[in-house]
Each structure stands twice: as C-alpha cells, then as structure tokens.
Amino acid sequence: MALIEIKNLKKRYNDEAAETPALDGVSLEIKEGEFVAIMGPSGSGKSTLLHILGFLDQPSSGVYKFDDKNINSYTDEEAAKVRNQKMGFIFQAFNLLPKTTVLDNVKLPLVYSGVKESEWEAIATKAVEAVGLGHRMYHEPSQLSGGEKQRVAIARALVNNPKVIFADEPTGNLDSKSGGAVMEIIQKLNEEQGRTVILITHETYTAEHAQRIITLRDGQIEKDKQTDHRHKAGEFVK
Amino acid sequence: MNLLYTFRIAIIGLKTNKSRTVLTILGIVIGITSIILVMSLGRGAQNLILGQVQGIGSKTIAIAPGKQPKSPTDFASLFADSLKERDLESLKQKNNVPTLDKIMPIVFGSESATFENITYRPTIWGATSLFAIIYNVYPTEGENLSEDDVKSYSDVVVIGNKVKEELFNGGEAVGKKIKIKGRNFRVIGVLPQTGQVSFVNFDSAVVMPYTTAQQYIFGIKYFHRIVVQADSEANVEQTVADIKTTLRNNHNITDPDKDDFFVETQADAVKTVSTITSVLTLFLAAVAAISLLVGGVGIMNIMLVSVTERTREIGLRKALGATNGDILKQFLVESVILTTTGGLIGIALGSLLSLLISVILTKTLGQSWPFSVPLSSVLLGVGVSAIIGMIFGIYPARQASIKNPIEALRYE
Fold first, then answer.
1. Which of A46, A110, B70, B75 has fewest C-beta within 10 Å?
2. Which of A56, A81, A117 sits opposite B405 (nearest CB)?
3. Which domains does chain A have, with CATH numbers?
4. Cβ of A111 and B316 within 8 Å?
5. Residues B180-203: pLDDT tens digits?
6. ipTM for the complex?
7. Which 3 state secondary structure label does DSSP give A90?
8. pTM of the model
9. Minimal Cα–Cα distance from A95 to chain B, Å?
C-alpha cells in the first residue's frame, strides 16, 4: 500500500496572473520506506508539491491520499496532528527559533504533541545526541555553523519519530563538507531506520542519494525513474 | 499545549523585546494608576465630607428660608427672609413640636474686625450658647456666651483660634475689646483649633449673641438658619413633620409646594453629599478609562507589530504541529500578561500616589484626609486590564493564527 498517493493534482494561486498553474495534473505514488528526490528548475512546482504533500498547503483540485485517507477529510486540527506526529520537516533556511537553545528548539514539536512535559528533556537530548551535537546542547542558533544548524533541524524533525521526512533543499545554504554530513544523516534515516524521505533539490549530485528521482517541469512530471548510480551514504560530491 | 507552557513561551517572547514590552506596559500602567488614584481620592474626599456632615450628629435638623434649591442656580434662597422671631417662638412651644430638644437661630456674614491697628475679616456668627453643644466646640480660654447675653443684646464675642492669632498676634485676648462696624465688643472666650466642622470653620469665626448680630451688625429682623435638635434619632422624622406644620400655620401656607422654607436633616445631607462625590468619582474614573482605551489600542498596535515580526516563527510552529488554537492562545496570553502586569503595577503606583497625596493634604489642610484604596477599584483595575488584554489582543492573535503556514515560512 502506498503511503502517499496523488492523482491529477493541480494548484493554481489566486493572486497569480500567469497562464500556467504551479501544478498542472501531477499523479504519483510513494511507498513507505522509499527515498525520493524531486528535481526541477525553479518555478517547476517542486516546492508547491512538497508543501501540499506536507499538509502545509491545499491543492486546488485532484486527489491526495496520505495513509489512505483523503486530505480533504482532515480537519485543521487533524492535519496539524499529522504534521506533528507523522511528518518531519527540514528547511533550506533551517528555521530555528532565535535566542532559543538547541535543546529547546528540538523540543518544539513535543510541545504540540501529547507527550508529557516531564519526558521532553530526555527525548530531545537523545535526538540532539543522535545528530552528533551533544556538546552544543545549550548553544543558541547564532553560535552554530550552518551545518550544525541543519543538524539541529534534523534532530527537531526526528523528535516525534515521524514516518516521513520532507527535506526542502536541505543543503542549499551549506558548503560541500557540511552538506555532505547532512546528506549522510538523511540517507541513514532512510536506510537504517526505514523512514520515507522526500527530498527537494535542484542539484543532481544531491538527488543521486535517493532511490528514485522525479523531475518536474512547468507543473508536470517530466521524468520519474530509479537512480542509475546511487551514492552511498557519506559519499558526497560537489 | 498546556497553559503553563503557553505562559512560559509568552514570557520568553516578551523578554526578547524588553524595551517594547516595557513601553507597552507603560500605557496600561498610566491608565490603571489614574483609575486607582481617582477612586481612592474620591473615596477619601467622600469619607472626609461625610465625617464633617456627621460631625454635628444625626439628631440635628436645619431649617433654611426660601424654596429648597433644586439646582446650583437656586441660591437666591440664601437671601430669603421668611424665618422670623415669631417662628422661633412657635417652634419652642412644646405643644407644637413636642420632640424638640434644642433650638438655635443663626445669622451669619463676613465683616471686618479691628484690634488696635490690626484688621482681619472673620465670619460673624450670631447664635446662642447652644452653638458649643451643637457643634461640639467649647472655649478653652474664658467662657461661652450665656442666655443673658442673648436677652440683653450684649456686646460680647467668642473668637476662633485664627482670629486670636491674627488680631492679637498670639497675645492675651480675653477681656480685650475688638471693633466691628464701629462698635466695641468684649472678647469673653477663645475657641480651640478645630478645622472644618460640618462646613463651618470656627477657627476664623467670631461668635456673638444673635440678637446683637441682627441689631447692630447685619441690621435684619430674620434668621439665616434655625438649627433644631430632636430628642432622639428615632424622632427626627416626627420632628421634621411638626416643624413643617408649625411653620405653614405661621405663614398661612396650605399647599406644601408653596413652602417658603425648607427643612434638611443630616440624613438628607449625607445622602446628597455621597451622591455628589460618587458622581464626581465616576466621572473622573470615566476620564481615566479613556486613557486605558488608549493604552489598549497601544497593546493592539504592538501585538500586531509583534505578529508581523514573528511571522516565520508562526509558520514554523504550524509546520511542526501547532493548531490555529495553539497560536491564538500564545498571542492572547502574551497580551493578557502585558496588560495584567501593567494593571498590577498601576494598582501599586496608584495606591502609593494616593497615600502620598493624603499625607500632603493632611499636612496642608490641617485635618486628617483619610487614605483608603477601595477594594472595588483594585478588582476593577485587575479586571479591566485583563479584559483590555483580551479584547485588544484577540485581533492580533487571530491574525497570527490564521496565517497560512507556508506563506508565513517564506516571509522575509
């Protein structure tokens, strides 16, 4: 059974005068445990697709089933709960809260979960250690390097043990060394923990960490194929 | 998301922008401070005035000539001449007003008094010896007026403390003669310092037999007031009724609407005074409420700025699982914390200022100004500030909560 199933998905922004919609009839399935990269030039609709898949935006028309349930049948509260419990987000711009420690940043998803406050500390500490930042626990984002910030964001994405990770150009703001470290962690999440990963990138070498690469152009799927020469975890060329 | 955590987040949010937080609170502080100050001082004034009114006892009844004033422009009655010696005699008769215990006519006015080369302008009181009992003020030097002084139109006076100081420069006064309207009066007594007693300040008064005052000072044959004391509080109402009947008989009045006199009891006076001060306090509180409104709009303004500034944070929280309700709560709690903190500071500041003012007034007025912060004003202050936080916080909080997460995340 597919974790994600979309059929003829369209998205048109109200304030957009452009002729072509952001998404123009996209259909695809993503199984649980897959590592999929979505590629395409800017304006191809890849970010829009990711946002809809991540429940951050609504399609204009078409069907989107997550966990076999249609997106339209989720209330706002239920959608928030899915984002909180089943999805993890990694953004290009990191989006950490300023003037807030690494530990407290990682705790953030726990705040909106049903987890008891007494357990937050232990869970968040474990997640921070898992991305190798145990020594940065009480630093604020302004004291961290770009690569470290993105690892904090990964720890935050993992803290509620989600099924699927959405990564929106996670290496876009990083140099090749820290980008490589980030991609290594993301690939291990897929290979060792069996999490579904959906990654957006415009860089072929980053996309080649995935099993499958979907290429978008003008809101439609141009190519959808398995990766020929997949990188191993830790192998990052730039 | 539990409430305690919401509070902590709100406080962190407020801490990250300290100067803005302080300035926002200031608006509420000013509003609440003025409300507390006004209500506290209003209560103080009310207590002081009521204390004065009650000072001469609740058995006391005042009869004034003319129609009862219904509006501030009705002061013409002050010059009415309907109360005469004949009325005094009728009222004194036991079968007319059986519950009457004491009765004293009063005439008053301002005149210059001279001793050697010093002139001072005291209030001249024409009364009887009973004034000491009714107003509870007895001469500490010399003696009081006597019934004989009244009967024989004696040229004797009892003077107030201030009059003595002004005319005699602190020296001996009893036995000396002062000149009023070209006539010599012998000082027979000096009153102690009293301050205001029931709107009368005996410190600057010269008290003489009313017969003398009528004849030689004012040249009139009527009274400005007749003061009556009933034999008990329970009989005040009966006494008032009997007085009215007697006076109407004397003046041939059948229609009570055409009364050329009016009777006021202490209970009436207390009621009138508390109504006036309450209305005044309420009015001032309403003025203070306007400044609160301004403070509230300030809160709304600042919260809207804060919502815009933290658009990305809102988007992030939503992406991580915050519901609209969570975001609404977060911002609402922030504004309520702002206003309630302002409210508490305002209450403290208002009480302090009120205490300070009461100390200063006590010193300058020479009488104790009672300090009190009414509980109602404290509750009002806290309640109003919290409600202002709610009302003016709800719009910005709602703006925050309905932000589309992805647009919020993209916001630069």
1. B70
2. A56
3. 32-55+79-226 (3.40.50.300)
4. no
5. 998 999 999 999 887 766 667 888
6. 0.90
7. strand
8. 0.68
9. 7
